[in-house]
User: What shape does this take?
Amino acid sequence: MKTFYIETFGCQMNAHDSEKVVGTLLAEGYTQVDTPEAAQLVLYNTCSIRDKAEQKVFHRLQQFKREAGHGKLFGVLGCVAQQEGERIFERAPHVSLVAGSASYTKLPELLVQLETGNRRVTGLSLDTEATFDTPYTRRDNPHRAYITIIEGCDKSCAYCVVPFTRGPERSRTSESVMREARSLAELGYTEIQLLGQNVNSYRDPSPEAWDFATLLAKTGEIPGIRRVRFTTSHPRDFVKAIVDAIDANPALCNHVHLPVQSGSTEVLRRMQRLYTRDEYMRRIEWMKKAKRDIAITTDIIVGFPGETEDDFQKTVRMCEEVEYESMFIFKYSKRPNTPALQYQDHIPEEEKTRRFLILQERQRAIQIRRNASYVGRTEEVHVEGFNVATQQWIGRTSQHKTLNFTDADFPTPSEGRTLVGQYTDVLVKRSGPNSLAGERMENR
Ligand code: 5AD
Ligand code: SF4
Assistant: This one.
């Protein structure tokens, strides 16, 4: 029996890539196990967006170094694999397989090479046409499914490693996306999430030539699909038609993640983000003026080379103006090959930390205030699980907020009965900085 273990780091694209890898390995006769100790083939699907993420995989590889050679093989997949390539064999000589995300359809061939004794197997080409055909995808969640609509990225943000790890943009045909979405609906999935490094620049390569807003609207019309989400959006390509589509169809979730990175036009220029603060704010205005209450979330990088205190304060003020529903804050991290590496005026680590903490505290106050405004409202949630420690069901609103709730008639999952996967109305009774809590309404 051939066994494998896989651990995934990084974004949703990576999580979905792992689902494709698992499906392929199962089809090749492998069995998945829960621990690296029990596996013959140990795989790490890696992320290199920041240095810390990259270090994690080398740390993991060190942990099991001594076991290598005793019938156990190690493989590095994903973004660190693509970025470091064959250098990984030098940094971690017990690794036998290095493959980037564009090579997963070639996995069966690569596995044959491994099985026949090759200990330096690589799949690093980025020019593949077949990355979207993934008939073996083994999805982790039976209710919510990822669908890749576009791979790679054609932007060149000065800090970002993604164009190097995932290559140029390739859009999938609308027909292929719609076919996958319909078949997921038939299998009982009710929520889908359209994925891409930059979903907004989606352009159907077939004669239909759908843009992203059209694709989004069409997926929202598929019978059985109750929720459609999408990540990630680039502000430059974010058009008003997307907001109009969300307004027109409640199946399209009223949540937009629109990473701004900085509130200073000067920093944005040096980041090569291709928009100014005002242009970004115009997009925020479209959403604030929408009929539906659209939750807006973002990513911020603090301490980008040359970011002055004044630039940073502009970011803080912008965040207070927008009142993001939530935000990911990152300290700038130097990445190989990227233009920003050559910039002068790198900010000391302590200063990055200081800015990080200031912004985090301001954002916490905003979230406390915003979340409190939901108390008394009734929200529909998609139930995701049950928290044994708190004895609460875990739900997610269309806005992507966590809304935990109790149900007097259904206090815990019981034999063969669960709320997981269902949609139900919850009255919000309490709020915190990161979640809401309430009681299920009688609507069964
Ligand atoms: N340093 C810090 N944060 C980064 N991100 C991307 N590259 C870097 C980097 N070099 C952040 C951006 C992006 C998110 C996924 O990660 O905010 O939106
Ligand atoms: Fe990490 Fe970016 Fe690769 Fe996702 S695409 S795994 S965030 S480096």
